[in-house]
Fold each of these.
Amino acid sequence: DPQTVRDCLTIMFMCGMYDYSGEFAFKVGIPSKSGVSGAVVSVVPNVMGIATYSPPLDEMGNSVRAVEFLTALSGTFNFHHFDGDNSDKLDPTQDFLHYQYRGRKHRASLSIASANNSPRNSLKRSYSGKSEMGNFELEEIKENSVLADAKSQLRTFRILSYCAAGDLDAIKRSFLAGHDLAVMDYDSRSPLHIAASFGHLEIVKYLHEEVLVDVDILSLKDRWNGTPVDDAKREGHTHLVQYFKSQNIDIPN
């Protein structure tokens, strides 16, 4: 249940590390629960769970190595609860794409270099970014375009996942961060489609009344020509059907 998960994570964030909880929340910002056995369970919401075990304890009753590890982890990656999208830390949910596409650039650079008289010098110029690097600049632009598209797809997946899980707070954070919520997946299914399918009334209301105000719900059609209203009816969410009717939406029989 999303409400139970949220409540548990809140308790872990506020008081899961005994008397060190406040400072841990400030410095590390990862919801965690410590035990006097030396075990610590931590959760990075929507990313992963972590379990550490090392019996030597500090004066607060927390595992010394677990605290050091989680502090270093939060300092390297944007796992602190209040790290924004503009954080200078690494985002492991996106940076693997960078490494993947960097590898593609390497292969592309090799093909460019092989067409020139001096492959070694051409490859060196490509990576140094100095003079005579017209081909490299073109490849860099193409790489940035592919990477931006990949990040956009990942952001769309996250937003749709929030809608499926009923995580209204995460959707609001995405909207306040400037992310477009009028997105669709490969089946042309929008956040409203997903929320309606899972029966999440509060999310449907938020999207319809505060975000997608000028969007005609009946115009949102997936590749099967279905609308969010169709999804609500198909899944038997009568409370959503009643809501759509209260919004003067002409619901077909």
Amino acid sequence: LSYLEEQAKMIHMATSLETQLAMEEALNVTQNQFFESHGQLSAHSWLGNSQYIGGDRCILNTQNIVQKIMGIAQNTTKLVGRPGFWGPPFSFDDERKTTPSSTKCIRGDFDEPFAANILPELIAICNQAPFHALPEKSQLLTVLDLLHQYVRGDRTSPVPIALTFGLHAILTSMFVLHGEGDLSRLAECTKGSYNKLFAQLNAISDRSVTPTNNAPVFYSNIDMFKNIVNFAKPVGAQYDFQQAFLDPGVAEKLAFWNPLIGGEYLLYGTYLCSIGLGSATIDSMGQLRFTLHLYNALKQYRE
């Protein structure tokens, strides 16, 4: 038993050393130097040979942050962070002035936007929005679906590595596009395209300007589909505005309109409102099904 306890302590120590956040490394300089000089142990070395999930882009750092945030997340209260708690604050103004090659790390450089902006926003929308009711969500909203399942499930259980890979992909997409204002422009363009799609649905749902011979179910379908826009809107938070909290506008752009999540939303909206709504519209009185049944009958007759 004592041997097992000793081994457990060693595993815990090695894991704690490996998965230190950048801000924790700064607080444990002496300890880290001791391990490096005596045991040739250093943080984030286990996956050192993996270019995209090791070293300064270590996925275990992402896993560590996710588990810490999930440990304090609540069902009814949105987490609100303070600038600089997790690391250097993120600024789109600074991003416009940098070049893609100037940002070397995901670990450390993106800890603050990930822990203080992205995760709180996405956890809040997963708590509020009924993602489980959306069709084709696992294929088109893959990362959000994985997060929704975990947030609505047992948050005391280990974070699935599939979810961590998805969240790490968000950081990787930001890391690749970061610099010269590209990240900001992409966020604005994606959000604008998404909102324009649903603005068009709002326009055609106005019975005073659309043909009066449309079937009633046409308007019912439009009203149902245009509600999908609400799945990409930040959840409000209650806090004291006299304190220095993060800019909610920056948080929205980072969480909802980063390259990966913004792409998922735009893909889902385009697919569902084009193919899904289109099929429902032309089948408003059974026309599509009638035609397909007739086609199938004639096809079988010819065979």
Amino acid sequence: PAYFLRGGGGGGGVCTRRAHVAGTPQLNFTARFAADYFVDVVVAEVAAEAHVDAVFFDEVDSTFHNYAWRNFNCTRTPPWPPFTTDAAWAAYRDAKASAMRGAVAALNAAGKVPLLSSMATHTNFTAADRCLIGAHRWPEELLVPAVRGTHGFFMRFYEFWMLDTYDVNCLEAQLENALWEVSIGVPVVVRQQVPHNDATADAAVDFGIAAFLMVQQRYCYYGVSSGWLDDNWTYRAQYATRAVGAPLRNATRVAPHTWTRSFARCASVVVHLGNQTAEYRC
């Protein structure tokens, strides 16, 4: 049990996930032997796998951008929070960042690229926290260097890119966050959620692609799906029709919540975050 988080500041029941794979115990990264086990055994096994180029880590931000006790459930009703003070939570946050840094280094040494998932300004806890990155406890400017270290390389994966339920401030925060990441050499992979095989989603896809084009650099990728399974990913015509070539310059904000960028095969792409529309002036 010492490997796992416990409620009541360590004196309660083992904390388990309440979302995907419900009931799974949560590693206590503050305990050095647990963090070492994660890097030296779990990650090392994956690093040694042949024919694996990239390794995906889900919901990495759940610790860093929120109080961790909002993301853990402990065996008791009501559940005990695993951290009773900000200092205890910060110690866990730092320890997890250190473990992730070790994971990045181990995978890089084996020629593999980690994909670290971001909830991408999306959370269901309270209206005030609906912009995860905009309402963070630990800014991305601190998280990325802490996980990357001096020479580490990873890619950021956005689970919900430009989701239509976000308000404009959330969309702006998401775009600015991705722009900052690519500016320091962290490529982004984004996934947009749309209804399955819904022709009315074409405008939404045009918007999502335009927003992605504002941040596109080498090794950045866009995809659209209605869910997480193979059948949820269908080919969209815009993959070809919105292929505008290499960017000629960085994106520019030309009005509140409006950005534009020029490309080799398109004079300008404009994205309007306020009404979630796009213009392709090609």
